[in-house]
Amino acid sequence: MSKPLSVAVLVSVGRHPVSGVPRACRGDAVAMALGRRLAGGDLRVIHAGNRDAPALQDYLALGAGRIEVLAVADGSDPAGVLTGLLKDTDLILTGSRAEFGLGSGLLPYRLAHALDRAVVNDVLDLIIERNEARVRQFLPKGKRRAIATPLPLVAAVHPMASVLLTYAHARRINGRIEGIGPAHGSITGHPATWTVEQAPRRAVPLRAQNNADGYTRMLSFIQSPAKGGIVAFDGSPVDKAQILLSYLREHRLVEF
Amino acid sequence: MSTVQRIDPRRPASIGPSGLRRIVAAKRGAAIAEEAEKPLRTFEAPARWHMVIAHSDRGSLDEHARQAIAAAAILSDAKTGVIVAVLGELSEDLAKAGADLVAVFPDLDGGRFQPDRELAAITSLLGTYAPLHIFMPDTAMGDGDLGRRLIASLGMDAATRVVELDNGHIATPWSGGGVLATAPLPRVVLLTAGAVDSAIPFAGAGKVTEAAVMPRPVPVSDRYRDLGCEETTVSSIALEEADFIVSAGNGVRNIATLEALAQTLGASVGASRVAVDDGKFPRDKQIGATGKTVAASAYIAVGISGAVQHLQGIKDCRHVIALNNDAGAPIVKRADLTIVGDAEDVMQALIKRIAQARAQREFPGDI
Ligand SMILES: Cc1cc2nc3c(=O)[nH]c(=O)nc-3n(C[C@H](O)[C@H](O)[C@H](O)COP(=O)(O)OP(=O)(O)OC[C@H]3O[C@@H](n4cnc5c(N)ncnc54)[C@H](O)[C@@H]3O)c2cc1C
Ligand SMILES: Nc1ncnc2c1ncn2[C@@H]1O[C@H](COP(=O)(O)O)[C@@H](O)[C@H]1O
Fold it and tell me: Can you say how many angstroms the Cα of residue A52 is from the centroid of all Cα atoms in its chain?
């Protein structure tokens, strides 16, 4: 390879799920560890926000070494300002979603679109071979998919990626946090304006208005809708086995 | 003639679940219509559209996708139609779910990673119908991924992980801790499962667009090459993740047969609490309220009566098949197929039948 691979990881401020205390976002820390494995000491660790955020110290302790902080006003869109900074980076790693705020998981996609490059989500592992990334992607039901895609790439790392997170207080003290000038640049498509409610509450599911008369509505509460399950009584065990197999085949639950 | 009002002993009545006769109070004479046809939501021709986009699995849409369709239908007025774009094959009717028009892209199923092609197909469909709002299930894979790609590429206002919505607003979780953040209903809405009740009292027209009017597949070269899925061995995945489970209850005497059956089907093994308490299975195999909650596509309950505590653990399973010698067991109400008979006999027959099917390489089509 002519020029060395440039890798950056984006880290956000996390939040402890129970106490609410700011901390390193776990998913982002996993992405950082994966980046460290790929790029060693050349990994750039970038945060858009406030350089005094205490959570950043956690990333130092987890081995960030040096964190570049892009100053952005609170509430402004980090994707916009990050675009200009990351134009020449071959591989951008992010977490799957932020723990703080909306946590929409949109940032990697918007960044990839603004930089016109590929994006893969739920990345468990990644290797670079001849300017091409080979990605192992998490799928539900215990499946894993292999994907090949050319660099440059944005990879949103799955929190279950197997990396070793080690916390060292010495690194926390020795690490540096550096501010880099106020950024400019933005992506079209402003996010909706959000109002944060004060008190926790349960979400109310959307239900269709039911104009049926009282009797019908009462029925719908006391009768569970007849699920129309088939009951097979007759025949020998062999016939019954055939019924079962036919059912499995009809719903394509088996491939033979 | 007596003035006492007489009650017609043969007036309409229904027999309740506990066997009690209940007299029908309202709508006298109206037959107790079993599964009455749902009325159409609207009779007007759509002037504008709401669009739902979802991947199908094995020819059908799951509950989460149905919730997205229900949301689109509930939030539509009489002049708005609901168009459902299905990625992957579809072999069911979506009218009851609330769809007015269905556009199927059979070769874009979620089994392959081809986001650029999916995006191109959806973008051209958006050009044709220009929907007011787009609703999608915010799944861990597939739809959640495609939805975010769509949001990024269209640059539209959007919200993900939506847990509450109506015509005026949406709400999503904020920073954890149960607090919600609200915003006006954006154009693209990615719905969390459970945000909508999919039971709707009306139906859509359910027309399927003809292939001719479907957007031509634009020749897009995907930047991604799908190199296929790794084979995972059944034993290595957790029960919660398993797609096919054979589960044993108190009615199973021969564990070896059950394990052989699970192996022939490539299924994981689960158990009811009684079977676990008997020491036939380790505790981590227990399914139910005090065990694991599973979400398999196929769940075969062998010799399990179906106590509520057990049913709680299998509420997310798609197809439940019961094997029981008692046709009155509660599991029968939950099961999509019940085989009444001795577990051991049927399991033996099934193992033989599958071995035969595999050996002869029968094609699943010719049953
Ligand atoms: C607080 C609490 C928590 C619980 N949590 C759980 C839980 O997490 N999971 C759980 O499973 N249970 C749980 N239970 C227990 C639950 O209530 C039931 O007792 C249990 O599920 C019954 O298990 P079973 O269906 O295997 O056994 P049984 O109820 O004995 O049913 C056996 C079934 O097998 C059938 N059968 C018998 N012989 C044959 C044969 N030869 N061929 C075919 N069929 C046959 C019978 O007709 C019967 O339907 C809990 C109970 C309590 C009180
Ligand atoms: N302010 C930020 N600075 C740096 N990276 C961020 C920031 N916000 C989000 N990210 C990254 O983007 C990912 C997804 O965030 P989100 O789209 O906000 O859920 C996170 O896991 C982080 O890796």
Answer: 25
